[in-house]
Write a structure and sequence with these properties.
The complex is a heterodimer of chains A (156) and B (717). Chain A is an all-alpha fold and 156 residues long. Chain A is built from six helices and no strands. Chain A is flat, with a radius of gyration of 28 Å. Chain A starts with a helix and ends with a helix. The chains are: A mainly alpha (156), B alpha+beta (717).
């Protein structure tokens, strides 16, 4: 494993390590040294993070899959869909509690269902674009693999 | 420059400023969908937070090591202070409290950036940029106007001046951080609102993102304000918990707008309405947090809480101007997208009740704000400073508060869009019957129990308006109790309806749930709704606590040792004074305290024939500040009433002492209420659908799609 990998693997444990050192320093030498260790930890952290941040700016390499996934976000329509479904649930509850009449429930429920359908259709629609992109990419990969497999037999 | 701690501290503040400015620039650039720059901005935000942490650690180190070269440390600490108070001194004065503000913000920034991991890709850069502007403002303030690391020009004194004795109270250790956390927490919703406006993504995404942050900020504001009340009640010794002091008022102002927002956001989520109003409320809440900080520090209005007058006010004015201009500009720019998708169709609807509730809350805030700054306003307008006192606040705030209290109970009974006559009758009958029954009971037996339904009040204003306000004030007890009954009845009805519906559904499924299990599941499945009801229950308890002041008794007496006095149901016998340390009657702990002289006036307390124990109100004279003796309250708490005794003075020869005795009914309900409020908000904040599972689900779906397409491409079935 190269140092970079070690570095990123250990990253989540830094706060725990710092806390351990602070507690150790505090127990052995008192509060003031513990605060100094904490400050030292913040200083190192600040400098390392600044360095990494600058490194990101100057890097010309494309993002790795892991990095891209880290920054990726679910479509906001997924959230809207969850919100509409929650509103539907609330509406059903209000109807059961007798706060709205059956007719009002029907109208409002229809409106929310229509909204949910529109969101689902729109999500599927956007997935269609991704689907064709994936299809063409896969086709290219398979073609490459097929060529690579054919090449040694040709040379024979 | 960095060889010594003060210089190193200042250098760190410059590092924070540079880091914040850099992160701001990178974040703005990242908004053009540059993923590497976004990663860089995220790391920059973490680095900025780490540097702020370093600055706080350096100041804490200076306090702990008594580095009196630093002016702030010399001014707010001395060698006799315990570690807890040394650390509390971090926010005990102006310069340190600004650093504390920045450090809490940096914690929020770090948590928010971590939380945005894998979500809100479009909003994220502007959220980070906005937070960096706020962080940068506080650092600029410190660097150029109130540097906590500034050295004393006269050199390091041998001993510090010490923290104000009034601040040497355990509630003061927790009150400012809680309140500041609430203030600072409002920055995150503000940053999201700015991001939504800048990017034009004004659909539900940002609203959902903001909801829990606003709830957290609101919870901290509630806790911070109530802790302030506890501190005032226990430490200031005037018998009450809220004196309408400008700084107290300033701390409460964002609470009202945040409460309004938490309700109006439901209308936008549900009906697509009030979009401008919601953005405005978030902007206003953030503005009020800055205004509150400004009011405490600028010396604009005199207050017992104010820090020393300084020239930092002008920085705040510029920043508040920037916030107002930015919000106004962005709202105007996005007006077409902020148009309402619906309208209020009936007055008897939940959205109409919420809107009235919003007006009442914002009205209450506006009233308090205007009355708070009225001395200054009147100076500008009439060239005469007119100060409005607590009676004026109470006269006008109470009716508005009761309107909000009524709407809090009534609003959940309305359905969205419109409520039919049949539903209205069905929903309102039980709560109104409960309200009327409690009101009748209160009128019938309240007086005998010591809680009369009507308390005569003087007419404080001339004319018909004066008569109306007098009548309202006189009937406040029965009105509040009736509205409390309405609120409790509504909550019980809602829970019973939900429980009944859940039980009948379980019977239909053929697996009847036991009632306790069904109750737990009802709350667990609808956390937002039922968490809100628990919060309403807490607020109801707090209203009952506030009402207690209507029945409070106050008596000033002068007693010689052996004499007794009776106030309400309590009889107190004064047994004499003792001075600690030194007296054999003092405890070991009291004798060990050499930082102050304590003069206790002991009293034995009886309620009827029952001995309740000893009360020892006192005066503390700190050796460091002999000119500012503090009043230590003798307090006996009870769910029905508190006995609150303050000693005014004692003659050292005759031992005759003056006492101020208060019997404060129901005050403990405020503290119980806030605990219930914390529980309810926690239930409400608890996530219903975890983002992680949503993300995993999205990834799993995409992975499945890839696999299927791969199989198709390979020609497999």
């Amino acid at each position: 494993m190269d140092p970079d990998q070690w570095f990123s693997k250990l990253r989540p444990y830094w706060p725990v390590l710092l806390l351990f050192l602070v507690v150790l320093g505090g127990t052995l030498y008192g509060v003031a040294p513990a605060i100094l260790i904490l400050g030292g930890g913040f200083l190192v952290l600040g400098l390392v993070l600044s360095w990494m941040s600058l490194g990101e700016l100057t890097s010309e390499e494309p993002l790795s899959l892991e990095e891209a996934l880290e920054l990726g976000a679910p479509d906001h329509r997924e959230q809207e869909k969850a919100s509409v479904l929650r509103a539907l649930k609330d509406l059903e509850q209000e109807c059961r509690f007798g706060k709205i009449t059956d007719e009002e429930f029907a109208v409002e429920s229809e409106r929310l269902r229509h909204q949910a359908k529109r969101l689902l259709a729109s999500l599927d629609e956007s997935a269609k674009d991704r689907k064709s992109a994936v299809e063409s990419r896969l086709a290219r990969i398979l073609q490459k693999q097929a060529k690579a497999a054919a090449a040694p037999s040709d040379s024979k | 420059m960095w060889q010594s701690l003060p210089e190193f501290g200042s250098l760190v503040l410059y590092a924070v400023l540079v880091s914040a400015a850099y992160t701001f620039a990178v974040a703005v650039a990242a908004s053009r969908d540059r993923l590497r720059w976004l990663r860089s901005a995220r790391l920059g935000a973490y680095a900025t937070s780490a540097f702020v942490g370093l600055a706080v650690a350096m100041l804490a180190y200076a306090f702990v090591t008594h580095d009196f070269r630093i002016r702030y440390v010399a001014h707010y600490s001395d060698r006799s202070m315990s570690l807890g108070y040394l650390l509390a001194a971090l926010w005990g004065g102006q310069d340190g409290s600004l650093l504390w503000w920045a450090s809490l913000l940096s914690i929020f920034v770090a948590i928010c950036v971590r939380w945005m991991h894998g979500r809100y890709r479009v909003l994220q850069p502007i959220v980070i940029a906005t937070l960096m502007v706020v962080e940068g403002f506080f650092v600029i303030l410190m660097l150029f106007a109130a540097n906590p690391f500034q050295v004393s020009l006269a050199g390091a004194p041998a001993e510090g001046e010490g923290l104000n004795p009034l601040l040497q109270n355990y509630w003061m250790i927790v009150h400012p951080p809680a309140l500041y956390t609430g203030f600072v927490g409002c920055s995150i919703p503000f940053a999201f609102a700015v991001a939504a406006l800048v990017t034009g993504r004004l659909h539900e995404e940002w609203l959902l993102a903001v909801r829990k942050w606003m709830l957290v900020a609101w919870l901290c504001l509630s806790i911070g304000n109530v802790l302030g009340m506890v501190w005032a009640y226990e430490e200031l010794g005037w018998g009450g918990f809220w004196a309408w002091d400008p700084v107290e008022n300033a701390a409460a102002l964002p609470w009202f707008t945040a409460t309004a927002y938490l309700h109006s956001t439901m209308i936008q989520e549900r009906r697509g309405m009030l979009k401008i109003w919601n953005v405005f409320l978030i902007g206003l809440t953030f503005f009020l947090t800055i205004f509150g900080t400004f009011l405490t520090r600028s010396g604009l209005i005199s207050s017992v809480h104010s820090f020393a007058q300084s020239d930092i006010g002008v920085y705040f004015v510029w920043f508040m101007g920037l916030v107002l201009a930015t919000m106004a500009g962005l709202i105007v720019w996005r007006l077409p997208q902020l148009r309402s998708q619906g309208r209020i169709e009936a007055v008897l609807s939940r959205e109409a009740a919420f809107v009235i509730n919003n007006w009442a809350l914002v009205g209450l805030m506006t009233f308090i704000l205007t009355a708070t700054i009225f001395p200054k306003l009147s100076e500008w307008l009439f060239h005469e400073s007119i100060v409005v006192g607590p009676p004026f606040f109470n006269r006008w705030a109470a009716p508005l508060g009761l309107l909000v209290f009524f709407l809090m109970g009534a609003a959940p009974l309305f359905g969205w869009r419109r409520t039919s006559e049949k539903a209205l009758k069905k929903n309102f009958v039980a709560p109104l019957v409960a309200m009327a029954a409690v009101a009748a009971l209160h009128i019938a037996v309240g007086k005998q129990l010591g809680y009369p339904a009507f308390v005569a009040k003087d007419q404080t204003a001339p004319g018909i308006l004066g008569v109306i306000t007098q009548q309202l004030a006189s009937s406040a007890p029965v009105t509040t109790i009736s509205l409390a009954a309405l609120n409790v009845a509504v909550i019980i009805q809602e829970v019973v309806l939900g429980l009944r519906s859940r039980l009948s559904a379980s019977i239909e499924r053929g697996a009847r749930e036991p009632v306790p299990l069904a109750l737990v599941r009802l709350f667990a499945k609808n956390r937002r709704r039922y968490g809100g009801y628990i919060v309403h229950l807490g607020i109801t308890a707090m209203f009952i606590g506030f009402l207690g002041t209507a029945w409070s008794l106050t008596r000033e007496v002068s007693l010689s040792p052996g004499q007794s006095t009776t106030v309400g149901a309590y009889t107190m016998t004064y047994s004499g004074t003792r001075m600690c340390p030194g007296s054999p009657a003092c405890s070991d702990l009291e004798n060990a305290d050499t930082t102050k002289r304590m003069i206790f006036a002991d009293m034995q307390v009886m309620k009827g024939n029952k001995a309740l124990g000893r009360l020892s109100p006192a005066k503390f004279i700190y050796h460091r500040m002999p000119g500012s003796p503090t009043t230590e309250v003798g307090l006996m708490r009870g769910l029905l009433s508190d006995l609150y005794v303050v000693v005014g003075g004692a003659n050292p020869d005759t031992k005759r002492a003056e006492f101020q005795i208060h019997v404060n009914p129901l005050v403990s309900w405020i503290w119980v209420g806030v605990l219930v409020l914390i529980l309810g908000t926690s239930v409400s904040i608890w996530p219903e659908v975890s983002w992680g599972s949503l993300g995993v689900w999205v990834l799993a779906r995409n992975a499945m799609k890839l696999e299927t397409e791969g199989r198709v491409a390979r020609g497999e079935s």
